[in-house]
Specification:
Helix content of chain A: over 70%
Oligomer: heterodimer
Helix content of chain B: 40-55%
Strand content of chain A: under 5%
Number of helices of chain A: 19
Shape of chain A: globular
Strand content of chain B: 5-15%
Order of helices and strands of chain A: HHHHHHHHHHHHHHHHHHH
Structural class of chain A: mainly alpha
Shape of chain B: globular
Radius of gyration of chain B: 22 Å
Radius of gyration of chain A: 23 Å
Chain lengths: 461, 345
């Protein structure tokens, strides 16, 4: 994901910001007529998407038609049903692969298809829908508008969260109530999202990029870069989620939280229950559980193979979903391996709830996650190996001074995240502290609102 | 809900108004702000000081592609004292502002200024002027550069930004405040613990994060990404683009000051390897050459003379350390061959 300082078009952020008044007015004006209201939302969503990517919009529409009618006319015979599902999944995955592969042999196809941002999230929602339809989990199958609205709900189209089809379609079917309370809840989320993105993520991104671009940074500088990246990607992605939830709130929808203080996780399993929650849930429901069940069946319900293979494969799939390079695959396998080890450790300590001090558990988990981020962000595995084998520690001379300066900057940008966590945990004082925090955030946002903002990191996925 | 909103507004007013007032006091400006469609008043003059001290006869300006050019070799081959100023990530707006304030306003301006350019940068004044590049641009610009601002920055600025800049001093001075904040935090800990002042931290940063330390493969990615924004067919329509570029100003100012402006096209590694150019680029370069020569300048394309080898490069545009001196000699000789008509020392 090559990013040039301040040069990226801001498709994800700017289009909805510019179109908000028009869409909201049309939407609110039709609130009392549910079908029309849904249609307005659907058309507006496609329009906004096609605004940034006309060919992508057309592709999205064709895929939406394909998936809807495939799911609607799934054969009743089990064998043909399975074949139809397999065909549907293959088409979705193939389109995703073509859209993801921006370089190399498929460059021509990409140019023909145009850039279709958020295709990875769109594909996951479609897979959820096809599988749930296949399993017959809908009491009342959705009509075209309801289904299309689920897969292309504009606030979520670029980076999720990935809602469960049945639950979200329930919201689509019910008349929405948009009152001052909803609006009042939505605006702090929007402000928080913008603050995290512009003030924290974009600025940490400058430092992180500088470090990960070096030919041979010192080990400590790599560690600092990984720390910066940990908070950059968190602020970026959770900022997008806040914005998405805020915009959804303005439309009367309640959408999932995707993050729950992930860096305070006690172990790796806990981390994945707090980080990108909707993707973890998707991987659990559609990869981990079916795979584990299949492996248990194959091995006669003996747990050995299923215990290590299921997490490894699931996380490898997660790595592949995040990107094409070996670094992403290694990152997935690394997390898979840690989850296997985590299971072993937990089983070993099964009688004790918390065998080690909480702060130690949190610290170790955070360090392991940081190592994972260094693999994820590295330009190549060879680059990383070179630093581990040949790099200096970089604690003295210019390296030491630069490290100290870089760490100061990372701390400065990370501080507001810590402050906000404290504000949220401040009990009754939160009534006063939270508005005060937002007032300060808005002031800082004015200063940090440079003329060029970067796109959200997860828009590339 | 209403209570939260009132508390928020109270805090916001309590923070926002005093900080805006503080900005007005700090920068001694009147409210509402005037002259918003220009750069801020202060700029660094240390490059000019170097020119005043060294009194070169040739000044070379360009982006990181000229970083490895060897000053001593250039001085020898050109038989004129040469100073090279490489500003990584810069475009024609930066080069012109540098020329206007650091070179033309020097006590004894040089006889000749060499502008090393790539692609269509000379006719794209808004190339690398936004976001973090603006901060660098502000360093060499003054509030009197409204003409440059209009061509380089103004055409992408909308009425909303104008309004905010006029009535919110905090927003208008956001770049300056941001820079000061970052500098204070960055320099604070090394200063306190290691007694390393701002210059010392700057030097450490230069050593650790210098462009020469950047991974060659990643440079290629970065360059591709940068070039993507400028290598569009419409940018190669010379006749349309030249009138809204800074090129006429550069040529006019140079002519008025009696300085010979020389535009040297950066030779890419792929060109050194023999890759042919597309028709659009060739046509653009021909028109550029014609325009420059008609207006008293000199256009040089080292790729046409040959001499540079692909092995002399570190990546697509940067020379490698081992061959920097040899490559500098080749480029300087090509330039010298075009300068035969000028008197030597």
């Amino acid at each position: 994901m090559p990013v040039v300082d301040g040069m990226q078009p801001n498709l994800g952020l700017m289009s909805p910001l510019l179109a908000i008044p028009v869409v909201l007015l049309a939407y609110w004006a039709t609130l009392r007529r549910l079908r029309l209201n849904n249609l307005v939302l659907l058309v507006a969503g496609f329009w906004l998407y096609a605004w940034g990517s006309p060919v992508g919009g057309l592709l999205l529409f064709i895929l939406t038609l394909f998936n809807y009618y495939l799911a609607k006319y799934l054969p009743s015979s089990a064998q043909y049903r399975q074949v139809a599902l397999g065909f549907g999944l293959a088409v979705n995955i193939l389109v995703w692969i073509v859209c993801r592969n921006e370089s190399g042999q498929n460059a021509f196809l990409m140019a023909a298809a145009g850039f279709a941002p958020g295709m990875s999230f769109y594909m996951l929602r479609n897979v959820s829908y096809l599988v749930e339809q296949y399993r017959g989990e809908f009491h009342q199958p959705p009509d075209f508008v309801e289904y299309a609205l689920y897969v292309s709900f504009y606030p979520q189209i670029f980076s999720g969260p990935i809602e469960k089809p049945a639950l979200f379609i329930e919201q689509i079917r019910k008349p929405r109530l948009v009152n001052w309370r909803w609006i009042g809840n939505a605006f702090p989320l929007i402000l928080l999202g913008l603050f995290k993105k512009i003030t924290i993520a974009d600025n940490l991104g400058i430092i992180v990029e500088r470090i990960f671009r070096l030919d041979l940074p010192s080990r400590m500088l790599l560690a600092a870069g990984s720390l910066g990246f940990a908070f950059e990607i968190y602020a970026d992605f959770s900022g997008y989620t806040d914005l998405s939830r805020g915009f959804a709130g303005l439309l009367g929808f309640e959408t999932s939280e995707n993050f729950n203080q992930p860096y305070l996780a006690l172990n790796l399993q806990d981390f994945w229950q707090r980080w990108h929650i909707s993707l973890s849930r998707w991987l659990r429901d559609f990869i981990f559980f079916p795979l584990r069940r299949a492996l248990l069946k194959i091995t006669g319900w003996r747990r050995g193979l299923a215990d290590w293979a299921a997490p490894l494969v699931t996380m490898a799939v997660s790595g592949f979903w995040h990107g094409w390079g070996w670094t992403f695959m290694a990152w997935g396998l690394y997390h898979g391996l840690l989850l296997v080890l985590d299971q072993k450790v937990q089983r070993f300590h099964k009688r004790e709830l918390n065998p080690y001090p909480m702060c130690l558990q949190r610290g170790v988990t955070f360090m392991l996650v940081l190592v994972g981020w260094s693999i994820f962000r590295a330009p190549s595995l060879g680059w990383l190996m070179q630093i581990w084998m040949k790099g200096s520690w970089g604690l003295d001379g210019s390296q030491g001074i630069a490290l100290m300066a870089v760490m100061s900057l990372i701390m400065m940008y990370t501080l507001p995240l810590g402050l906000y966590a404290l504000v949220k945990a401040s009990g009754k004082a939160r009534v006063v502290l939270e508005p005060a925090f937002f007032a300060l955030a808005l002031t800082l946002l004015v200063i940090f609102a440079a003329s060029g903002m970067r796109d959200f990191v997860y828009m590339d996925f | 809900m209403a209570k939260k909103l009132i508390i928020f507004l109270a805090f916001f007013i309590a923070i926002f108004i005093p900080t805006n007032q503080a900005v007005l006091n700090r920068y001694a400006v009147q409210y509402p702000l005037e002259n918003i469609r220009s750069f801020k008043a202060d700029f660094r003059a240390d490059y000019r000081a170097v020119i005043n001290r060294e009194q070169p006869r040739v000044v070379v300006i360009g982006d990181s592609a000229i970083r490895e050019l060897n000053e001593a070799v250039f001085s020898d081959v050109l038989e004129r004292k040469t100073l090279i100023f490489s500003a990584p990530g810069s475009g024609s707006a930066y080069w012109y502002l540098f020329f206007r304030h650091q070179v033309l306003e020097a006590q004894k301006p040089p006889d000749m200024v060499l502008f090393f350019f790539r692609g269509a940068t000379l006719t794209e004044p808004d190339y690398l002027v936004d976001g973090n590049y603006r901060i660098r641009l502000e360093e060499v610009a003054s509030s009197e550069d409204a003409d440059v601002y209009a061509l380089a920055v103004g055409k992408n600025q909308n009425a909303l930004v104008d309004l905010l800049e006029r009535y919110l001093p905090l927003f208008a001075y956001r770049s300056e405040i941001y820079q000061q904040l970052v500098a204070q935090v960055r320099n604070g800990l090394p200063g306190w613990l290691l007694k390393c002042d701002a210059l010392c931290v700057d030097n450490a940063f230069d050593q650790v994060f210098d462009d020469s330390q950047i991974n060659a493969v990643l440079w290629e990615d970065l360059l591709r990404e940068l070039d993507k924004s400028i290598d569009k067919p419409e940018n190669y329509d010379f006749t349309v683009r030249v009138s809204s570029s800074l090129l006429p100003l550069i040529l006019k100012d140079a002519r008025n000051a009696g300085i010979l402006p020389v535009f040297v096209r950066v030779e890419y590694r792929s060109q050194a390897a023999g890759k042919a150019e597309d028709d659009l680029t060739m046509e653009y370069m021909q028109e550029l050459q014609h325009y420059i020569q008609q207006n008293g300048g000199l256009y040089i394309d080292p790729a046409k003379s040959g001499g540079l080898e692909p092995g002399m490069y570190r990546d697509e545009i940067h020379l490698n350390d081992e061959n920097a001196a040899a490559a500098s000699a080749i480029i300087a000789q090509i330039i010298a061959n075009h300068l035969d008509f000028l008197p030597r020392n």
